[in-house]
Every structure is written in structure tokens, then in C-alpha cells.
Amino acid sequence: MTDGSGPVGAAPALRVEDLRVSFDGVPVVHGVSLRIAPGECLALVGTSGSGKSVTARSLLGLAGPGADVRADVLEIGGRDLRDAGPREWRRVRGSGVGLVLQDALSSLDPLRPIGREIGDALRVHGMRDPRARRARVLELLERVGMPDPATRVHQRSGELSGGLRQRALLAAALALDPPLLVADEPTTALDATVQARIIDLLADLRSRGQATLLVSHDLAVVARLADRVAVMHDGRVVEEGPTAEILRTPAHRRTRALVAAVPTGVPRGTPLSEARLEAAASAPAWTAEPRADDRVVLRATGLTRSYRRPGGSARTAVDDVSLEVRRGRTLGLVGGSGSGKTTVARLLLALEEPDAGDVTLDGEPWSGVPERARRSRRARIGAVYQDPLASFDPRWSVDRILRDALAVAGLRGASAFDSPGTLLAQVGLDPALLPRRPARLSGGQRQRVAIARALAARPDVLICDEPVSALDIAVQAQVLDLLDELQRRLGLGLLLISHDLGVVAHMSDEVAVMSDGRVVERGSADDVLLRPTHPVTRALLAAVPRLDPDAAPR
């Protein structure tokens, strides 16, 4: 089924015609029409600001304050919701449509066991018998593949891994057997093996008749799950059709740009995005002093770090890890959730001290020395994190954020480059953004500001911890292009920590694979990713969803 019509006589799970959404009189969604049949998955894709999330939330009665939502037809499971008020929408959410969001940790109550949270949804919708509720909760957790559900019902969300939290959220969404499931970026920021399990679970639900609206920036996930794709731009659907056809022969230039932005299989140095960083190209460039291209700038030897659990037992997060970051080259560090990647980054940044082993920066001791001795050299190493919004002071303007970085580095006023405006130009942003606060920037703009802040001190090495995992595919491509351009221009050594093996393959010269706190395989990117020898590496590669039009459901 590829047209949303479904079996003869069956009501569509979703039918919407000429959806218009505006905020305070400003239109943001223009004439969107969608139809999803029972057992069908429709993917809604597009860049940040294209209107896909507003469209999806409008179909749930969650467009937000100041929203004016109108449609010629808005039906879920045959129920007309054009004039639904807040009370009716509350009844529809859960019984008519289930919602799975990207961040399960913030969606689940951290203070309640997941069994009680799912059970409360059942109670609110009329299931009063506690024994019946418990049996239904266990049935749901088993349905979504939760291991040992009888134990998990008593655990809170913070006690579960990312993959198990996402399964719990999915169980809650399916509690009342809604005809429609809305999954908004359900696999973003999960490592490849956990992502593969969630994709398999969603595919299994679809095969059992679950209709799904999938909102995703990951076209490889879309290729695996969706029967049809609708591409949005500027609040409009600009292209719609069967997944295989859209991915193989995209007709609209926006669709072609999205497909071209996927890093898998694109040679290193080939721009992924349409943006060519004209502002950066004309900015006052600085180059580092000439040095040997492959000189080691950051070296870790035998790093070990353990933490005490509340009960007193020790957990080893990093176990005898050694690695090198060379000037002008990128080391990709990959591994599953909990493998120790981020702890390694914290040790390299000297945010924590190792229990054993040492770190050197440009051949000089970096770990195990007083912070006073490190302070003058901190400018040599910079960091870019997954969520820049959490690392910015929300009250500060971009101008103040960058001036503070320059002041801390002791470079304020040293040259024309050492000013907020020229820093922004260096990362391809208009200096007109300087007065804005972080919340008024897009995700891609915030990440570029984070990179500009890291560059303020003219570092020799950048540690990038999941720098693009929360960005849509087009913005992700622009940030990767930017990092590649800056490395070539400035001779930066990069440590790229990522769960996305497509990103790692595109950016890295060498790759190290971690599991259970240890480096289990390392070598050139080609050797590790094309000729893996360790079972963990092979499992990670096997779990990566491929942008393969032939894999789309038929």
C-alpha cells in the first residue's frame, strides 16, 4: 500500500486535508494534506524550520500557545477533530493517537517507576482494577521487547539505559491501542545497536497493523521503516511518494539536497551541503605556525577511571585506554552507549583525573599536574558538545559568550580576528546574530557559535563529543563541512566522538572502537570500517541503517 488508501472499506488512521497553522497571525504551515492507512508508515522529513514538527504536533492538539490550527478535514481513526477542545483532545491522546518523542528521559517522570507511569495512563482512561492494570503493563513491556519486565516495572527512568527508556516510552504510547502512532525522532542520539533494536521494534509494530507517522531527519531510518515519504519546506509539502521512488529519483531540489547531505559513502573532503561557507571564505583567516603535519598533539597512555556505586562497589568506566590525536588529522572514537567514550573525553580535557595512566599535550604533562600549571595551556585544547544550549548561559548574548571566551583565553584585542564578529564570520555566520541570545538561534547556528567559542583560544586540538547528533541532516552536513574546512585551514587535530558511523567514516583518518571501557580495535578508517576484526566493531557496522531505496517497505 503506497497511497494511504489502505484496504477497501477501512477508515484511514489519519486523514488531514488543507492543514493551516499560524502563530499570532503569522502562517507557518500552508495547506498540508496527509493520509495514513492502517498498517502504513508515512515519514515526514525536512530541515529545521520546515514545519514538520509543528505539523505533527498540530495533529495531536499540541501546537502550543497562540496557535491557530485550521483544516478542511482532520480525522484520526475516523473521528472528526476540527472543532475539538482541550478536553476532547485529552481523550484522543492515548486512545486515538500515541506519541513517542526523541528524549525519553525528559518525557518520563524521573520520580515514578515506569510501571506506575504506564499504569496511571490506563487508570485515567478507565481501567480501574489494579491487577488488570499490572497485567496490561507487563503485557505492553513484553510487547516492546523489554527484558525482564517484572523487574523493570519497579525501576525509574534514570535506572534504565537509553534504549530501554525508549521502549518504556513506546509501551506507554501503545497502552490504549491507538490507531495512530506519532514517532518524533525516536532513534536520534541512540547508538547504532540500540537504534537498530528500536527500528526493528517499530517495523514489527507496523507489520502487525500499527499506522505510524514518523518524523525524522535520518533518511536511512526512513528508508528502513516508511512506505511513503512527504518532504516539507517552508511549511509546505514539496514532494510526496513511495519511499523507494523518492530516495532513488528525487524530483524536488530540496529532496535532492537532503539525500546528498547523507555522509555515508561520500569521500572525505567532498562538501555535503549546498552551503559553501561564503562568509568564512572571506573572513580574516588565521593559520597556525608551520609544524609537522602528523605531529602528536594529544596523547593518552593507559588511562583508567573507576567510580564508586552507592552501595560501595566500583564500576570501571575506562580501562587501560591509549590513543593519539595528530595535528591536521581526525581520530574517530566510536562505541555503544556506556562504552566509556565521554569519560575518555573528560579525562583528555582534564575535567577529571585518571586513577592510572597519563595524558600529555604537545609532549608536556597534562594530567596529574595542578590546575594552576595547566591554566596557561588550556587555550591549546577546545571542546564542542552535543547540546550547546545546555553549555551556554541563556541570559548572555552571542556577543558576550564570545567576548568571555576571548577574555578567558587572554587574547581580547590581540588582532582583528580576536573579536566576536570575526569569530562568527570564521564559522560562516552573520555578525548580525551577535545581539541574540542562544534560545533565539537555530540548532545549527548554536553549534556554529559553540565551535566559534572553541576557536577563540586558537587551539591545537578540538574534542567534539557528538557534535551533530541532535541536528537535522542538512544542518549536520553544514557543520561537518565546517569542521572539515577549519581543520584543513587551521591544521587542527580533531577527536570526533560519535555513535553515527556514517559521520565517523566521512570525517576520520583513524578510528578507535570502545566497548566496556576498553579500546577493542583501532587502525585506519578504511581498515576498521571496511575490514573489521573485532565482533563489537562488526556488530556496530551491521546495525547501521543504510540509505538503500531497495530496503524500503513494499
UniProtKB/TrEMBL annotation:
Domain of life assignment: Bacteria
Single biological process term from Gene Ontology: transmembrane transport
Protein name per UniProt: Oligopeptide ABC transporter, ATP-binding protein
Residue span, ABC transporter domain: 14-259, 298-541
Lineage: Bacteria, Bacillati, Actinomycetota, Actinomycetes, Micrococcales
Pfam family, one: ABC_tran
Gene Ontology terms, MF aspect: ATP binding; ATP hydrolysis activity
Alphabetical list of SMART domains matching this protein: AAA (SM00382)
Key words of the record: ATP-binding, Nucleotide-binding, Transport
Family of this protein: Belongs to the ABC transporter superfamily.
Record carries keyword Nucleotide-binding: yes
InterPro entries: AAA+_ATPase (IPR003593), ABC_transp_ATP-bind (IPR050319), ABC_transporter-like_ATP-bd (IPR003439), ABC_transporter-like_CS (IPR017871), Oligopep_ABC_C (IPR013563), P-loop_NTPase (IPR027417)
Keyword Nucleotide-binding: yes
PANTHER family: D,D-DIPEPTIDE TRANSPORT ATP-BINDING PROTEIN DDPF-RELATED, TRANSPORT ATP-BINDING PROTEIN
Regions crossing the membrane: none
